[in-house]
Amino acid sequence: MKKLLMACLSLLMAVSLTACGGTDTDDKTLTVLTSSGYAPYEELDGDGNLYGFDIDLMEMCAKELGYTVNWLDMDYDGIIESIKLGKGDVAIAGISPTPKRAEVVDFSDNYYDTE
Questions:
Q1: Phi (first) and psi of residue 9, to 5 degrees
Q2: Using CA of residue 76, residue 112, residue 27, residue 24, what is the dihedral sign?
Q3: CA angle 89, 93, 96 (to 5 degrees)
Q4: DSSP 22
Q5: Measured distance CA(51)–CA(43) in Å, rounded
Q6: What is the largest CA-CA distance in the chain?
Q7: Which helix (H) or strand (E) holds 34?
């Protein structure tokens, strides 16, 4: 539960920093980038709707913070660059923090350890 709370707080910090960059703060929608096809974290159902652990986590955090989510499903390899280009507010797709990635994007606290 503590890691879940930290993930939500990290999301709040990311949203707050985005607002400082001139984003319309009345817009309570987050564009969230993900990459489906990685069960059980991000998958598509028969109707093309996203579901899985990461989807549920982001929806819960956004709801807690008063935001709605606009999902953008894309190729995993394009997520970091798309964040850099401002095509999304945050990403959730099992992206492990590395020193190289941390040079261009900010990471929340880990909520899942792959090691």
A1: -65, -40
A2: negative
A3: 100
A4: T
A5: 5
A6: 40
A7: strand 29-34
Cβ pair 105, 84 in contact under 8 A: yes
Separation between Cα atoms, residue 71 and residue 48, nearest integer Å: 12
pLDDT tens digits along 61-99: 999 999 999 999 999 999 999 999 999 999 999 888 999
pLDDT tens digits along 14-66: 543 344 444 455 679 999 999 999 999 999 999 999 999 999 999 999 999 99
- Give the integer Cα–Cα distance in Å for 6 and 38: 23
The helix, strand and coil proportions of the chain, stated in percent and rounded to the nearest 5, come to 40, 15, 45
Helices 2-20 and 53-65 cross at an angle (nearest 10°) of 60
Phi-psi region of 105 (alpha: psi -120 to 50; beta: other; left: phi over 0): beta
Whether 30 contacts 67, CB under 8 Å:
yes
